[in-house]
């Protein structure tokens, strides 16, 4: 078993990858900022 940090895990592909890794008996931690596409928290979309 490996410990895996999955970034962007709340999205479509991230969720499926997390489920796949869990089914392979890995320990998965998910990190996601939950920002919608096109909206940057640091004002980069100006």
Please give a quick description of this structure.
By secondary structure, this protein is α+β, with helices and mostly antiparallel strands. Helix content is 26%, strand content 22%.
Question: What does this entry look like structurally?
Answer:
The structure is a single chain. The chain has one helix spanning 12-23, and strands at 3-7, 27-31. The termini are far apart. 26% of the residues lie in helices and 22% in strands. It has a two-stranded parallel ribbon with strand order 1-2. The chain has one domain (1-33).
**Roughly what percent helix?**
25-40%
Q: Determine the structural class based on helices, strands and strand pairing.
A: alpha+beta
Average predicted confidence as pLDDT:
84
Indicate the radius of gyration in whole angstroms: 13 Å
| Alpha carbon gap, first and last residue | 44 Å
The amount of beta strand, in percent, is 15-25%
Order of helices and strands: EHE
In what order do the strands lie side by side in the largest sheet?
A: 1-2
Principal-axis shape equals: elongated
Uncertain runs: none
Domain module tally: 1
Number of strands: 2
Total DSSP helices:
1
The major pleated sheet works out as: 2 strands, parallel
């Amino acid at each position: 078993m490996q410990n895996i940090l999955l970034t962007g895990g709340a999205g479509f592909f991230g969720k499926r990858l997390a489920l796949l890794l869990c089914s392979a008996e890995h320990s998965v931690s998910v990190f996601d900022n939950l920002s919608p596409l096109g909206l940057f928290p640091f004002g980069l979309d100006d």
